[in-house]
Design goal:
474 residues; globular; 3-stranded mixed sheet
């Protein structure tokens, strides 16, 4: 165990020896996401709907048991057995502060976060603390948990000031903990002006350093951690800082232009996308961290007999990305550790109480494509195409590409707002009503579905990660 810091392009320990961090993101836990745990919409919506459906006591029981079961000693032991050495913990600001009672610290937020940090430390796993959700929403997506496509975090100074206050509290609490590799102050920002993000990073760097001069700070690029092109010489203000890209490939998702087989042209595109994201750091000799990456996987209940073939192509994407990363001795955190079967290294057994309770609902969600992540819109494309055509006909081309274009393409913007925000909102109470009539014992059984003992392992993915982890992992 050693306190880590940035030295040039590398992360090093207290003796100056390089430490390459390789692991996964613990998403869907202290920052729940719809595709990870199977609900529609955003976390704050389902929390409120469940309280209305079954009352505050039972609602609190479910979410507390969910948090307790989602990551335990057994998870950490398995994770370490793969040779991995770092977990990026995504968390929601609402665990530490209420919107109606801002700047009043909820000490309860530290209960589960401290528990998992300590469990990881016991097994020799570093943690990186990732503020995945900020007041007002720091990006335009569901995982910022604001229920809109407007990232109002950038439009209101008070939202930003609340996050500065929160990071001061977090840095004060975790100062000196050597098993924490560092702080990731803001996940996937989307600042349409590009300058407000840099101003915020200047402020949050100073705030953290005032309380904690030692831990690494990991700054995400703008536009979903893909674009450092507007950062200029801003890095000169930030010591002991690494820079985070999220290197997702279109070949790892439904809707890819073609099946990935590793042709010269496909590998060229894969490499070009990766190199473009890290270009700003490479030109300045800065430390790069790949905070998220990885394909999603086909499931037999949806893709049927094509499942194995699809996943063979997805594993090939994974393997070719890892070859690029190995060549650069890159630290990375694949997305993600645990879910209900779409992307996780482990996933909930389909025979558990949660999965059987929501089996038909999950099939409906998939058919309606109400989650944005990896959506297959085959069944509903005809519903939304007239709306897309209508806007294309009425709006001049020069007005069609709104930020965060080109990450959000025109068609995707229309369907994200209409499908993933509007239609999903109508399904929130339907999700919550599945709990109506359940006893406290049954609710605990539902939450227990997320225990490691009730999970299955994605062996193909874990094998590839294990083969890559020992080469450079500390």
């Amino acid at each position: 165990m050693s306190l880590l810091k940035v030295s040039g392009t590398k992360i090093v320990d207290e003796q100056g020896q390089e430490t390459v961090l390789r692991g996964a993101g613990l998403g869907g836990w202290m920052n729940m996401e719809n595709f990870i745990t199977g609900y529609p919409g955003c976390e704050h919506q389902i929390r409120e709907a469940l309280k209305e459906a079954i009352g505050e006591k039972k609602q609190a029981l479910f979410f507390d048991k969910f948090l307790e079961n989602f990551f335990t000693d057994a998870d950490a032991a398995f994770f370490k057995s793969l040779g991995l050495n770092a977990i990026r913990i995504a968390f929601n600001y609402r665990h530490f502060e209420d919107d109606m009672n801002p700047r009043v610290l909820k000490e309860s937020g530290f209960h589960h976060l401290d528990r998992v940090i300590d469990i990881c430390a016991k097994h020799g796993i570093y943690t990186i603390l990732d503020l995945h959700t900020a007041p007002g929403g720091q990006n335009t997506d569901w995982h910022a948990d604001h229920g809109s496509h407007i990232a109002n975090f950038w439009n209101y100074k008070d939202f930003q000031d609340r996050v500065l206050w929160l990071w001061a509290e977090l840095a004060k609490h975790y100062k000196g903990n050597k098993w924490i590799a560092g702080y990731n102050p803001l996940n996937e920002p989307t600042d349409s002006k590009h300058t407000r993000l840099i101003e915020f990073y200047n402020k949050v760097h100073k705030v953290i350093r005032a309380e904690d001069p030692d831990h690494i700070i990991f700054f995400d690029a703008n536009t979903f951690a893909s674009d450092f092109s507007h950062f200029g010489d801003s890095h000169k203000n930030w010591e002991n800082t690494a820079y985070s890209i999220h290197d997702y490939s279109v070949y790892g998702f439904p809707g890819a232009p073609e099946a990935y087989t590793g042709t010269d042209e496909q590998r060229r595109r894969l490499k070009r996308s990766y190199e473009k994201k890290r270009q700003w750091m490479d030109e300045r000799g800065l430390c790069v961290w790949n905070g998220e990456w990885g394909p999603v996987y086909a499931r037999k209940q949806y893709e049927g007999e094509l499942t194995d073939e699809i996943n063979t192509h997805r594993y090939k994407v994974l393997e070719d990305q890892l070859k690029l990363y190995d060549a650069d001795r890159l630290s990375w955190s694949i997305w993600l550790y645990k879910d209900i079967g779409f992307q996780g290294m482990v996933y909930i057994n389909p025979e558990t109480k949660y999965m059987t309770l929501f089996k038909d609902f999950l099939a409906k969600k998939h058919r309606l494509a109400i989650d944005a992540w990896g959506a297959d819109d085959t069944s509903v494309r005809h519903v939304y195409q007239p709306l897309i055509d209508h806007i294309l006909e009425e709006i001049p081309q020069k007005y069609q590409n709104l930020y965060p274009s080109p990450v959000w393409k025109f068609n995707e913007r229309v369907t994200r707002i209409s499908r993933n925000i509007l239609v999903s909102e109508f399904m929130v109470k339907e999700w919550a009503d599945h709990f109506v009539g359940l006893s406290e014992e049954e609710i605990e059984e539902v939450a227990a579905s997320f225990k490691f003992e009730n999970c299955m392992k994605r062996d193909g993915l874990n094998k590839v990660l294990t083969e890559n982890a020992p080469k450079v992992a500390a």
